[in-house]
Amino acid sequence: MNVRPKKSLGQHFLTDTSVAERIAATLDSYIGMPVIEVGPGMGMLTRFLLERGHDLTVVELDSESVDFLRVNFPQLQGRIIEEDFLKLDLDKVVPGDGPFCVIGNYPYNISSQIFFHLLDYRDRVACCSGMLQREVAQRLAAEPGGKERGILSVLLQMWYDIDYLFTVSEHVFNPPPKVKSGVIRMVRNAVTDPGCDPRLFKSVVKTAFGQRRKTLRNSLRGMLPPDVSPQLMEMPVWGMRPEQLSVEQFVELTNLISSKS
């Protein structure tokens, strides 16, 4: 019994067991903590997670994959959720208020949305790892100053320490994607108070990167009152572009905007 990869679901099934085992190993420090696997497909990664003794629940939208998993992984009985991960209330998947982990070979076409969704559960997701399109993986882990840095880089790095672990060739998938993949791991940091209004912080970050070729002086001017002092606008930060700023600098900028609004 095989599953037909579906382009509409962004399915590219990993065929290299050594890569799957390396991805599963990213959660070795979290044995005993509940784990949600996103998009298990034919269970290449699932197999190694179960072998390592993880308390595993899988979320799979494709009915063919769900049928395959039920036949080949009977130990997942009652642990297969046939729903869209982006619409799931993860607090109901893992009841209570304790921490859990998320892992997957994430569908390329919704990977960014997956990580935006996970931000809503940042107080519970202790670790998130897995494989994405390489450019997206590099973006999540990008340090200030690099052209890869974007909205998700800043929003995620507020709450997580993110490492780009290794690159995966396009030739170990069925069907092969047109791009290489990258594996990352995000570990929850100690931040509980962002030090600013989180909604305004998100708005500042999105507005700044929405016009990333402009300096912050131009892209964020609309968030300031018209009578803002010229001296304020001469501060060095206003001459920078968004990819140059650290999370801490965005926090300072958010507080500056908040005090002048």
Task: Explain what you see.
With 261 residues, the chain is α/β, with parallel strands linked by helices. The chain folds into 2 domains: 7-188, 3-Layer(aba) Sandwich (Rossmann fold), CATH 3.40.50.150; 198-260, rRNA adenine dimethylase, C-terminal domain (Helicase, Ruva Protein, domain 3, Orthogonal Bundle), CATH 1.10.8. Helices cover 34% and strands 18% of the residues. It contains 11 helices and 9 strands. The protein has helices spanning 17-24, 44-51, 63-72, 90-93, 111-119, 134-141, 151-157, 198-210, 216-219, 230-233, 247-260; strands spanning 13-14, 34-38, 55-59, 80-81, 100-105, 125-133, 160-168, 173-174, 181-188. The strands form 2 sheets. Strands 4-3-2-5-6-9-7 form a 7-stranded mixed β-sheet, with helices on both faces. Strands 1-8 form a two-stranded antiparallel ribbon. β5 (100-105), α5 and β6 form a beta-alpha-beta unit. α1 packs across α2 and α8 packs across α11 (247-260). It is elongated.
Largest sheet: 7 strands, mixed
The portion of residues forming beta strands comes to 15-25%
Overall geometry = elongated
From the 3D coordinates, which CATH architecture of the largest domain would you assign?
3-Layer(aba) Sandwich
Number of separate domains: 2
Instruction: Report Rg.
Output: 20 Å
Number of strands: 9
Number of helices: 11
Q: Any idea of the CATH topology of the largest domain?
A: Rossmann fold
Q: What structural category do the secondary elements indicate?
A: alpha/beta
